[in-house]
Specification:
30% helix, single chain, alpha+beta
């Protein structure tokens, strides 16, 4: 009987030891998972917004103190807004010369503000040549101005530009339209180029209203 009790006690002891070891192993595994999670967090890629903020942090002289119109600078003189923001679900504005037709083909496009050229190339389709410029206001807000259907592009990607600097010329998106400038201002710079039309205007603002409200800071 004593021998049976001793064996039973040994089994209980060994079981306790195994459970204790299992508990320690689980704690170690848990710590490793936490460490791994922290490592993943540290290695998490920067967003586009993070990268642009860092660029302006290192180059604060290129922040902007205000916005002007991209044609007929600074007040869009001799131009009119042929298709306004949200009209037909339009996400930007279409700027045409008052003489109509292709009268503005080759006319200058100006950067609406100091900024950093993120994209400057032919995007194909109905976009044609597109220039995307990121801006940081003095209050830290980061925005994008987009210029599409350009006939020529006069800037390069990763280049800083000044407000009123000629960055391209008005075009037809390789013959898709009569000459005009499709112009957008985006408050969400993470967005893909998209289609230029959408019922959802999240991340886009009325360009004319924005410029009039942000002529200077």
């Amino acid at each position: 009987m004593k021998k049976i009790i001793s064996i039973f006690a040994l089994i209980i002891f060994l079981s306790c030891q195994e459970n204790s070891k299992k508990g320690e192993d689980e704690k170690v595994a848990s710590k490793q998972e936490i460490s791994k999670s922290q490592e993943i967090e540290i290695q998490k890629p920067k967003t586009r917004l993070d990268s642009i903020k860092e660029i302006f942090k290192n180059n604060p002289q290129h922040k902007t103190s205000g916005f002007d119109f991209p044609v007929g600078k600074p007040d869009a003189k001799n131009y009119y807004n042929a298709q306004k923001f949200t009209e037909n679900y339009h996400l930007g504005e279409d700027w045409n010369h008052v003489n109509g037709g292709n009268s503005d083909l080759g006319h200058p496009i100006y950067s609406a503000a100091n900024g950093y050229v993120y994209f400057a190339r032919d995007n194909g389709g109905g976009w044609g040549n597109v220039i995307r410029v990121f801006h940081q206001k003095q209050n830290g807000e980061v925005l994008e101005s987009l210029y599409a259907h350009c006939d020529t592009i006069l800037v390069k990607e990763k280049q800083f530009v000044k407000k009123g600097q000629k960055i391209g010329t008005i075009g037809t998106a390789n013959g898709a339209y009569l000459a005009h400038l499709h112009f957008e201002i985006r408050t969400d710079i993470e967005k893909y180029i998209g289609d230029g039309y959408d019922v959802d205007t999240t991340g886009f603002v009325n360009p004319t209203r924005f410029i009039n409200e942000n002529r200077s800071e």
